[in-house]
Amino acid sequence: MRVQVDKSTFKTVEEMLKQAQFLKYINLVGVTEDKQLDDDIVQQRKKFVERIEKAVALLAPKEIQLITERYLSQDGNYVKDYEVYEAMQISEFTYYKYKNRAVEKLAEILGISSEVPDSHWCPLCNRGVTSERG
After folding, report:
1. pTM
2. What is the pLDDT of residues 2-23, one digit of tens each?
3. Where along the chain do its domains lie?
4. Right CATH number for 7-128 from 1.10.1240, 1.10.8, 1.20.140, 2.40.240?
5. Is 28 helix (H, G, I), strand (E, B) or coil?
6. In this predicted structure, what is the pLDDT of residue 126?
7. H helices, E strands: number in the chain
């Protein structure tokens, strides 16, 4: 069952991807004088980036390519959607289909999905269950 994500969840996932890209390539210039605090900040940033990268690694190959090129590359802030779908040699429609599916999966993996699955959905067997409720 696919859960549609709303605009706010979509934006949240996009912002997390952009933040991970930023934190991955930023230099910690003049953060603080305290070495222990610097190490804590660096570790928190590494954990966040690793969490995002592990979530992206669970996607389908085309979705990984799309997310990596669009959001997680070093110059991801300057890459536009049309540049990615031209590089991938897919249509605009297919690109947005992959992108929406990837963001839906990431929202679910990262636990930020705002939608709740249908109450008749069985998470144990991962299929719909008919109910005799009145």
Report:
1. 0.70
2. 556 778 888 888 888 888 888 8
3. 7-128
4. 1.20.140
5. coil
6. 47
7. 5, 2
